[in-house]
């Protein structure tokens, strides 16, 4: 299994001989509702569009997960699997094959990778987006992704899971609460799933963030503190801090197949 972190929530996952582009933001700025004054993410250099993509996987319909300028640059013939909210974005951009995956539903990619949707981040009072469990069918190796730290107890029945990509550091706003549920939520899901490896997502990488919102954002926790918490709970999980743009191989032990 190979991973490439592409800044923010964007990942290239190579699993089961398939190349999956996850929540890609690769070109142009990142804004919400075109409100640069409120929030803007930018990088000095755009990320190259990865080649030979087998699947685009979208966890949410918001711009930091279903980034319209990036999706416009990608080949509309690439298959898309997405939360119902993100599926509407892809369909509106003219993608030819879009599967809307509700919680509990599964999609199998070229008989190599099984993707199951779980309840993920809550956006507003009623909308719950997707987290995903990816399983390499040939080996049984598994990877779980949830970008805001909202983990469904339904995951427990699939333990152990080999790799978890989720926030490890907290990010929030005074009086409003968490945007990213890191330290405690990450430790809880680590206890549930007993992963071999955990990686932090939603970090800035090579990105510069500007706007009014950034003045109020507060972070909490650290990688060192999280590693210490894992040790105190007798978890042998390795915490990897990837460098944006670097492709690396995960050395994983094959364990008993998840149910």
Description:
This is MBL fold metallo-hydrolase. The chain is of the alpha/beta class and 259 residues long. It has a single domain (2-248), classed as Ribonuclease Z/Hydroxyacylglutathione hydrolase-like (Metallo-beta-lactamase, Chain A, 4-Layer Sandwich). The chain is built from four helices and 20 strands. The chain has helices at 68-73, 84-92, 183-193, 223-232; strands at 2-5, 11-15, 18-22, 30-31, 40-43, 55-58, 79-82, 98-100, 106-109, 113-123, 127-136, 142-145, 163-165, 170-173, 177-180, 197-199, 207-210, 218-220, 238-240, 247-249. It starts with a strand and ends in a 10-residue tail after the last strand. The model has no long low-confidence stretch (mean pLDDT 90).
DSSP strand count: 20
What structural class do the secondary elements suggest? Answer: alpha/beta
Please state roughly what percent of the residues sit in beta strands, choosing from under 5%, 5-15%, 15-25%, 25-35%, 35-45% or over 45%: 25-35%
Write out the strand line-up for the largest beta sheet, numbering strands in chain order. 8-7-6-3-2-1-20
Q: What is the fourth-level CATH superfamily?
A: Ribonuclease Z/Hydroxyacylglutathione hydrolase-like
Give the overall shape.
globular
Helix content: 10-25%
Distance between the termini: 20 Å
CATH architecture: 4-Layer Sandwich
Secondary structure layout:
Layout (H helix, E strand, L loop, with lengths): L1 E4 L5 E5 L2 E5 L7 E2 L8 E4 L11 E4 L9 H6 L5 E4 L1 H9 L5 E3 L5 E4 L3 E11 L3 E10 L5 E4 L17 E3 L4 E4 L3 E4 L2 H11 L3 E3 L7 E4 L7 E3 L2 H10 L5 E3 L6 E3 L10
Parallel strand pairs: 3-6, 6-7, 7-8, 12-13, 13-16, 16-19
Antiparallel strand pairs: 1-2, 1-20, 2-3, 4-5, 5-17, 9-10, 10-11, 11-12, 14-15, 14-18
